[in-house]
C-alpha cells in the first residue's frame, strides 16, 4: 500500500517537473509591415520600401502600448521576450528564435470601439511563417487600445502559443534550419586533396557528422563553391550555449584549420553564413 501511495505522489508531481523543464522559444514582438506602411513608418533602401521600426518606436505611443501588452500576455505564458527597443539598431541580428508580428486597426461604431488584429509567428532564421492568428474583438466602451487588444486576442491566444511551441519542439528534435555556403577565394579547388580526401568530401563529411540526423541538402556546387540548403543544426552546443549559424560554421572552420586551410566567416542575418577559403593568407 505504501508503494502505491508513493507511486501516486511521484506521478502527480511529474507534470509540474516536465512543465518546469519545457524549453520555450525566445520571442521578439514587432509591428506588421502593413501597419508600418499604413502609418507612414517606412524607409527606402536601394529603392526597396522597408518598415522603419526605429521611427515607429520613437513616434507612436500606440505601438509602444501594443508591443508592451502583447509582451505581457506572452510572458504570462512563460515565453521569454526580447526587448525590441534594445535591438532596433540591428534587428537582423536580434537573437530571438521567433519574430511575433502584430498588426491591428481600430473599428468604431458610435461611442463603441473594437480591434481587428493579426498575429504572425516568423522563424527568425528562415523568415518562414510558422504560426498565425487573427480576429476581431467585441465592441466596447473602453478607450484604451491595449485593453481592446487583450479582449480581442485572448480567445485565440492559446492556440497561437501552441503553434509557436510545436514549431520550437520540432526544432529541438530535428534541428534548426539554416543555409550556408563555402566559397574559395584563391587558386585552390574543391577537388584538391587533403589527407587522401578531396576538399569537397572533407566538407560534406563534417556536415554529415555535425548536422542533426545528417540532414542537409547540397543545392549547387562547382570547383570554387558549394551551396547548402535545409541544413539542420542543433539548437544548443554541447556546453549548453545557444547555437547559431556562425557558431556552427565556426566548427567547420576549425576542422579546415587542422588541414592547414585558412578561412573566414561572413554572415547574412541569423540564418545564413558563408565560409570563405582564402589560401593565399597565412594563419
Outline the structure in words.
- This is LPP20 lipoprotein.
- It holds the Pfam family DUF6175.
- Keywords: Signal.
- The strands form 4 sheets. A 5-stranded mixed sheet has the order 10-11-7-13-12.
- Strand 8 (193-194) and strand 9 (197-198) form a beta hairpin.
- It is 37% helix and 29% strand.
- It has 283 residues and is of the alpha+beta class.
- The model is unreliable at 1-20 (pLDDT under 50).
- The chain starts with a helix and ends in a 6-residue tail after the last strand.
- It has 2 domains: 24-173, Double Stranded RNA Binding Domain (2-Layer Sandwich); 175-277.
- The protein is built from 7 helices and 13 strands.
Task: Chart the SSEs and their pairings.
Elements: H1 2-21, E1 27-31, H2 33-38, E2 42-45, E3 48-51, H3 53-59, H4 61-76, E4 98-109, E5 112-123, E6 129-136, H5 145-174, E7 176-184, E8 193-194, E9 197-198, H6 199-210, E10 217-221, E11 225-233, H7 245-258, E12 263-267, E13 272-277
Parallel strand pairs: 1-4, 7-13
Antiparallel strand pairs: 2-3, 4-5, 5-6, 7-11, 8-9, 10-11, 12-13
Helix pairs in contact: 4-5
Signal peptide: 1-20
Protein name: LPP20 lipoprotein
Keywords: Signal
Amino acid at each position: 500500500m505504501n508503494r502505491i501511495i508513493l507511486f501516486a505522489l511521484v506521478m502527480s508531481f511529474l507534470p509540474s517537473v516536465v512543465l518546469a523543464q519545457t524549453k520555450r522559444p525566445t520571442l521578439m514582438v514587432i509591428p506588421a509591415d502593413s501597419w508600418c506602411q499604413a502609418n507612414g513608418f517606412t524607409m527606402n533602401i536601394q529603392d526597396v520600401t522597408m518598415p522603419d521600426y526605429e521611427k515607429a518606436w520613437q513616434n507612436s505611443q500606440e505601438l509602444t502600448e501594443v508591443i508592451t501588452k502583447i509582451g505581457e500576455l506572452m510572458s504570462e505564458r512563460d515565453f521569454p521576450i526580447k526587448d525590441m527597443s534594445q535591438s532596433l539598431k540591428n534587428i537582423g541580428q536580434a537573437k530571438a528564435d521567433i519574430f511575433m508580428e502584430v498588426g491591428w486597426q481600430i473599428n468604431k461604431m458610435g461611442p463603441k470601439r473594437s480591434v481587428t488584429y493579426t498575429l504572425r509567428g516568423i522563424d527568425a532564421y528562415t523568415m518562414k511563417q510558422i504560426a498565425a492568428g487573427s480576429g476581431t474583438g467585441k465592441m466596447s466602451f473602453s478607450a484604451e487600445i491595449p485593453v481592446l487588444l487583450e479582449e480581442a486576442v485572448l480567445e485565440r491566444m492559446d492556440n497561437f502559443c501552441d503553434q509557436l511551441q510545436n514549431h520550437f519542439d520540432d526544432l529541438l528534435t530535428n534541428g534548426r534550419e539554416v543555409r550556408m555556403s563555402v566559397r574559395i577565394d584563391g587558386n585552390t579547388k574543391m577537388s584538391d586533396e587533403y589527407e587522401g580526401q578531396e576538399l569537397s568530401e572533407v566538407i560534406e563529411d563534417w556536415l554529415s557528422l555535425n548536422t542533426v540526423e545528417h540532414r542537409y541538402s547540397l543545392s549547387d556546387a562547382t570547383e570554387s563553391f558549394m551551396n547548402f540548403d535545409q541544413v539542420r543544426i542543433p539548437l544548443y552546443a554541447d556546453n549548453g550555449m545557444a547555437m547559431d549559424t556562425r557558431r556552427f560554421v565556426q566548427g567547420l572552420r576549425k576542422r579546415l584549420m587542422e588541414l592547414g586551410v585558412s578561412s573566414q566567416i561572413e554572415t547574412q542575418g541569423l540564418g545564413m553564413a558563408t565560409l570563405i577559403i582564402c589560401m593565399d593568407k597565412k594563419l
